[in-house]
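Write out the 3D structure for:
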Amino acid sequence: METKDPMSELLSSLEQIVMTRPVMHAMPALKSDVAPPEPQRVREITGMQIDEFAQALGVSVSSVKNWEAKKTKPSGSAQKLMQLIHSNPCLSRQLLD
């Protein structure tokens, strides 16, 4: 059975999402004062356990635990991915496939 590179699969999936959505001519400006979603809140919305959430994000379980305990902050890419998951919780399950 062929193993797939998770990052390639993620990028491919995101490209498909972007390419199949209609182009918006008047994109609203992103507000920089909007706080990123809390990792624990995002995980709870998805109904995932910590290990599943960590796997979906491509990070360690200890990273997720540290984020949730507010010991460390997620990287910029992890925050962006959590924003995507927050806006579309079904995406988290797709990232596990």
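The radius of gyration is 14 Å.
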